[in-house]
Automatic annotation (TrEMBL), chain A:
Gene source species: Paractinoplanes durhamensis
InterPro entries associated with the record: DUF742
Name of the protein in its database record: DUF742 domain-containing protein
From TrEMBL, chain B:
Protein name: ATP-binding protein
Family under the similarity heading: Belongs to the GPN-loop GTPase family.
Keywords attached to this entry: ATP-binding, GTP-binding, Hydrolase, Nucleotide-binding
Keyword Hydrolase: yes
Keyword GTP-binding carried by entry: yes
Cross-referenced Pfam families: ATP_bind_1 (PF03029)
Taxonomy of the source species: Bacteria, Bacillati, Actinomycetota, Actinomycetes, Micromonosporales
GO MF, one example: ATP binding
Length: 121, 186
């Protein structure tokens, strides 16, 4: 009799073994709907050993402030998946979120600093 | 300190130089992020050319400019294809405004973008890309063809040229500030 055992390796030679929708538990939208493409996140000093490797990769990318869009681009993850995964990490206390871009009315002070920054280019 | 992100949308028809403009001012080589769509999220009437596909991919090119230690500006190019209009909503939401690039050989290619931002009251400037050589039209003719509001700024630019792209961005931020001041409650 042969025992079928799993060696714990999810990455087969043919590629990803666990489909992305399994990693996000079938969720299709982030709980925090203010997460925008440009929203900045940064890793908190938390032990990541209990996380799936795909999530660890994201946390490692966030050593300094980075946008959701950049995480997706660097890790070749579709945006919708990136948003849900980032949201899961925020919810579980692995990432901190900056001030989102989704503000309907901009304060002039912020626009003023953007203008000054562009003029320095 | 919390980091604030700011967005500017770079729009225009297919091949008007959106990624070129982003590349000319971005501090990083433009990155591409992808959204995978299932058929259900794409209008049934708009599937011409992608029949039999269960999913389709929209690519977004973007760049970054660090304004200060706590403010970072992202420039997002819109997807060129018309059937991805719904992506524009996500890009435009909360954005400072948009630069609509215009290719004078195909003025009509930029009309949908002008229309989009005008309808939503989102500040935008039109940037006529001189990349393609001498322009056969006057500013008045271009304004007429695009049915531009007289208050919408029009700048001439070469999307490959950093100072020129920078000027288009500055014009947009100034315009957005003027619009905000004009509409702010007393």
């Amino acid at each position: 009799m042969t025992l079928e055992t799993w060696d714990g390796d999810d990455e087969s030679a043919a590629g990803r073994f666990v489909p992305l929708y399994v990693l996000v538990n079938g969720r299709t939208a982030p709980r925090d709907s203010t997460l925008d493409l440009a929203t900045q996140v940064v890793a908190l000093p938390v032990d990541t050993r209990r996380l799936e490797p795909e999530y660890v990769e994201i946390v490692h990318r966030c050593a300094s402030w980075i946008s959701v869009a950049e995480i997706g681009a660097y890790l070749h993850l579709p945006l919708a998946i990136t948003k849900v995964m980032v949201d899961v990490l925020v919810e579980q206390g692995y990432l901190r979120v900056g001030i989102p871009a989704q503000q309907k009315i901009f304060d002039l002070h912020l626009l003023d600093s953007v203008l000054a920054g562009l003029e320095r280019l | 300190m919390d980091r604030t992100s700011v967005k500017i949308v770079v729009a225009g028809g297919f091949g008007t130089g959106k990624t070129t403009l982003v590349a000319s001012v971005s501090e990083i080589p433009p990155l591409t992020t992808e959204e995978i769509l299932t058929e259900a999220s794409v209008g049934v009437d708009d599937l011409t050319g992608v029949e039999g596909k269960s999913t389709t991919t929209v690519a977004l090119d973007f760049g970054r400019i660090t304004i200060s230690p706590d403010v970072v500006l992202y420039l997002f190019g819109t997807p060129g294809q018309d059937r991805f209009w719904f992506m524009w909503d996500e890009l435009a939401q909360g954005a400072v405004g948009a630069i609509v690039l215009v290719d004078t050989r195909r003025l009509d290619a930029s009309f949908p973008a002008v229309d989009y931002f005008e309808r939503r009251g989102i500040p935008f400037v039109t940037a006529v890309n001189r990349f393609f050589g001498e322009c056969a039209y006057t500013e008045e003719e271009i304004r007429g063809a695009l049915e531009l509001d007289p208050r919408t700024p029009l700048v001439w630019c070469d999307a490959r040229d950093r100072p020129s792209s920078k000027l288009a961005l500055i014009t947009l931020v100034r315009h957005a500030m003027a619009k905000l001041t004009a509409t702010a409650p007393a």
